[in-house]
Every structure is written in structure tokens, then in C-alpha cells.
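Exercise 3.2. Students should predict the tertiary structure of the chain below and write it as C-alpha cells, then compare their answer with the key that follows.

Predict this chain's 3D structure.
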Amino acid sequence: MSSKGHTQGGGPFKKREFQRKIIVDIEGFGDVTTLDEALEIAQEGTVIKLCEGVHLARTTITKGGIKIEPYYKDKLVYILGNEGPTIKIDVKMDNPDDPEEASKKQVILKRVVLAHTGEAIVKNFKDLQFPKEFVDILKKKPNNKVLREMYLEPDMNTLIMVKSGGILMRNCLLTLRTLPKDLKRYVPAFVALPRTHVSIINCDFVGGSG
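Answer key:
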């Protein structure tokens, strides 16, 4: 599935300038070696450049006005999670319904591949208890009504969760193909809670079929 120009809660975000740069290189040749380290020192107006490779993450972003993108435009960058949201956006806002504040405090993801291994889910799968209504929903034919009814939790397994604040995604790939076959139906690619702001441009979502 490809999504082009989808917006929720206030329309497209305004373009902004980024004054500071942090380079993340897992081989140790950048400013830091992990995305979490970069987010710890990042401030509003920071662009985080990820060098080529697989960046393991279970990251909560609490600061707005940050952009994450590859250091090299022609190299693939993977952000891979194994438990909970791979990336959770939880940016506090004074007025969640104000699109101007959302534009200022948005998090931008550009040209990255997001995936989830499900390793931690597999380890604890025998202990998981899914409500009957959740299992019943999964048996239905997918549609918008089913998506709205899906059982949500604050730290559920997903690629992206927008809990508070806003996100702009451009030219990204979100794939569930890395999950074990039996778990694909339990993990949504993207979750946005009410009163959040979302803009998705030219992104591809690859589901768990096949």
C-alpha cells in the first residue's frame, strides 16, 4: 500500500530549517553510535543523520522539531525494533489541537526503512492474552471500521506510534515482512492516537501477507 499526501489533524506541516546536525554511525565514525544517544543530545532544530546500516531501536522521541534521515541519500538505512514500538512519538504540547504548534514540534522521518523482528514477542508469546473482541476483529475483512476498533495499548508492538505531538513521514518504507508469520496479524505498522497530527507523503506500507 502506498500513501501519498495523507494528513490528519491540521493539514501538511510547514517546511522548516535545521541548524544543528548529529551523525550516527554504528561503526563509531560519527558523533554517536546509536539513535538514542543522538536523541538525548538533540534539541529543536536538529537533523539526525543515520549512516548506512541497521540501527536497533526501541526509541521514544519526546522532543519536537527534530528530523531523522540517512547521511547518504543513496544508502539504505534500517531502523529495527524487537519489542514495543520501534519508534514512539510522545512530544508534549500545550494545545494538541493547534496545527501551528504541531508544525513547530513535529518529528520528521525521511527515507528510512522501519521494521520489527518480533523477537521479544516470540519469547513471551505463550504468556500473551488477547481479549476475545480483539481476536474476533482480526477475523473480519480489513476495513476502516476494523482499524478504528483495534485494541490499542500505550506500548504495543508496532513500527510507529504517535502518542502525542506530530509526525511527518516522507519517502519511507514500513514493512512487517520481518515478523514471524504467526505474529504478522497482531502487529500494526502505524498507530496514531487521538489528537495527534500526521502527514504521510510517498511512503509504502508492506503488510504481513505472503
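Discussion points: The first helix runs from residue 35 to 41. The chain has one domain: 2-206.
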